[in-house]
Design brief:
mainly alpha, disordered N terminus
């Protein structure tokens, strides 16, 4: 029974996680740890050439369109597919031993949540219909920064002649159509449909993928406990956490 509750915990959190992952990521400097100071300088002349291209590819309002109705239409069938997964498949993808997970009946998340939470689907719909527009508004605030980052990326990858050719193409009707819709391709139902169709196979492959990580990590020393630390390390840890030694050991 404990394994079932673990799976249900995953089931109620993974749709929200999937929403965040399908949408655009937050600004790279805040998420990747690669600050601007770690990157080589960009030629100002090339950057000036690249900025109009970035503006065509990422015009104002792109994030709101991607994360609003467009993404809502995509996420609804994705959540439907997710809830039809057998609990035992979800457990195996989460790292539970296959023989223990296979001992369970092939009940789906949808079937179990119908008993535990009859409003589960409505709850997910509320999350979808409120989270995605809010994410779109939030991401819209960062569009100027994202455009600048895109321009810097172009300026670091292409020379003046190449940027000129790209710019000339973007000024044609076909180029303008391609450029203005390029970002939205990530949320296109044709593309997302292929990703969605891959998910069941990926979930079945996860146990083997995780096992490779477990095998590799087995060659590393085990993490230390508080008791294994030297007095100086304990003091440093306590200072970092902001707790005294009595509370740390409790």
């Amino acid at each position: 029974m404990r394994m079932t509750w673990i799976a249900l915990a995953l089931a109620t959190t993974m749709p929200a996680t999937a929403m965040a992952q399908v949408g655009p990521s937050a600004p790279a400097a805040e998420t990747s740890g690669l600050g601007a100071s770690t990157l080589p300088p960009v030629d100002p002349a090339l950057l000036a050439q690249a900025r109009p291209i970035a503006l065509i590819i990422l015009p104002d309002g792109t994030m709101a369109r991607m994360m609003g109705p467009m993404m809502q239409k995509i996420m609804a069938p994705m959540m439907d597919s997710f809830t039809k997964m057998p609990i035992r498949d979800l457990l195996k993808a989460g790292g539970i031993e296959a023989d223990k997970a296979d001992a369970l009946n092939p009940a789906t998340i949808e079937e179990i949540m119908a008993i535990l939470d009859p409003n589960f689907r409505k709850r997910m719909d509320v999350m979808l219909n409120t989270m995605m527009p809010a994410l779109g508004q939030f991401m819209g605030r960062f569009e100027p920064d994202m455009r600048e980052g895109m321009a810097e990326a172009f300026a670091s990858r292409y020379n003046a002649a190449e940027l000129g050719e790209i710019s000339a193409f973007m000024k044609t009707p076909t180029g303008a159509k391609f450029g203005s819709g390029f970002m939205e391709l990530a949320a296109d139902p044709h593309y997302i449909g292929k990703v969605q169709a891959m998910m069941p196979e990926m979930m079945r492959a996860m146990p083997e993928i995780l096992q490779k990580s477990v095998t590799e990590m087995g060659t590393l020393p085990k993490p230390r406990t508080y008791k294994d630390l030297t007095p100086a390390e304990r003091q440093r840890l306590e200072a970092l956490i902001g707790l005294d030694s009595k509370k740390v050991t409790q």
